[in-house]
Structures are given as structure tokens and as C-alpha cells.
Amino acid sequence: MDTPLTRRTLLGQGAKLAALLALPSPLHPLAGIGSFGERDARALLDTDQERLAAWSASLRTERLADSKVPLGRAAARVGELAIGTPYVAFTLEEYLKAGGSATREEPLALSLTRFDCVTLVESCLAIARATRAGAPTWERFAREVERMRYRGGRRQGYTSRLHYFSEWITDGEARGLIRDLGPELGGVADARPLRFMTEHRASYPALVDEEALSAISAMERRLDGVPRRVIPTDHIPEVADRLESGDVLAFATELPGLDVSHAAFAYRDGGGTLRVLHAPLSGGVVEVTRSTLPEYVAAIRRATGILVARPLWG
User: Exposure of 264 by Cβ count < 10 A (0-12 exposed, 13-18 middle, 19+ buried)?
Assistant: First the structure.
């Protein structure tokens, strides 16, 4: 997620979903987790529905699909199982490129065989929640994604999607899906107006439509009064011990008009070191960073800190 355009991508359009799910998608080699046998087994899981069944079975076997277990822990486990999965950008807008309308109901695009940074976060949380509700079906998984991705959980046109990740956080908190940890971690208010989408209209295929442009502009103005609490980069080491595996991270940027440039999970490795589990554009596959979270943020050009939200079972 280097801009709102690239950060929330999934495969295909609704009309092609059934065909998409039937296609095998070879995985990149897995590294850094589990035994050789486990890596081999996961390499064979090359379709979305096979992955949904296998990953949810892992959560049940490991007793992670329980409301007594933090949701973030279950979501991070799904993220571990997704390590090595390819990053694919721009796919959420494919229905527009194929001639779809920005003002009609947006197709609910879904994939577990490729991710961008936000769809990885959404998919891991959705699988954990769907598994807690029982043996997850693709439809149940879809409902869980839908209620995170769209304002108020209601999927309508393109503009009903939560394009700015800071709104993803505030909207989710209002509905009991997450808790914004910014205030309690000493987050500093970022009151800059968000205008990136309308000021870069040519980068967004949907904004060719004047009605969609007007709706996005109105949304940006509404967000002017919504506080964003950013933990500054140099303050992250002081609060790192209060973060848990599966906390949702958004990397704040100083780019004019933009709130964040990337999203991920906080991740504690076997030794307790705090790292980042994410789908990076630069790395090409889902991974856990070699660097610690403070080191990772400090290395991001124009980063100012992080927004942090703790997932709730909702």
C-alpha cells in the first residue's frame, strides 16, 4: 500500500469469481516458519477454498478459534500460514478497467492466493472470525471481509469502500471490530486534511465518473474532523512492549494529503522480538521482516510513525 490506489487490492470482479477460484495459483517458496513437512504441505495448497479449509483447521487444532484467545493472535497465525504468498497490486480496480461502474454495487473481490497489504490484514482477521463461528464457508468468510472493508459494513458503490486506512480504523472501532490504541500509547494528533485521492484523480479509474469524484471529495471533507493518533517513530521503542502479535499497524506518512502508506500486523517471533508481518510491495511475497518494528519504521522514507489498532472478535 504505497498510496490508497495500491493498498487495497484483491483479484478479479464478482462475475469472474467462480472461475478465479477454480484456477490453481502456484506459491512462492515458503521460508522461515515451521518444519520442512509443514512447508511442503502448505506448498500444495494452491486454491482459495483449500486454503480457507486448511487454515481454519489449523486454528481449530491449535485452539485459537476461541473468544478467550486474542483475535490478533489467531489472525497472526493465519498470517504465518500465508507466508510466501505473492503480492499483487491494483486488482481491486479490475472491474473498473473491464468497464464496470463506480456508482453501482461494487463486486466483492476475494482471494487467499495473493494479497496486497490491506487485503492480507482483512483476510487473516476474516478467517479467524469465520472459524470462531463454526466451520467456515466461503460465504461466511466473504461476509467478514465485507463488514471490514466498507463503511458501516454496507457494500454499495466504489465510494462506500474505506479507501483511507485511518477511516478503516475509526469505522471499525465504531462498530466494535477493533480498538484504536493511539490515545493510550501517546499518539500525537495528525490533523492534516486528506485530499490525496481528489488531488490525484488521474490515478484512480473510478474518479473519471463525476458522481464518484463528488462523493469521494465529500468523504474527504467529512474526515477533516476525525482525529488520527500517530505514535511518532522515535516513540515506538518506548511502547513496543505494549504491542501484541496481531495488532494492526498503519504506517503514517508525511506525503501531502495522505494518512498512511502501508498496513501490516505487529508480530512477536519465538524469542519475543517485535517484528512486522506484512505483504510488502518491495518484497513481492507475504513475509515477517528481519528488522524489528522500530527499525522497519525508521527505514521507511517519509514515515512519521504508526497508527495501532487491536482487533476484537466483534
Answer: buried
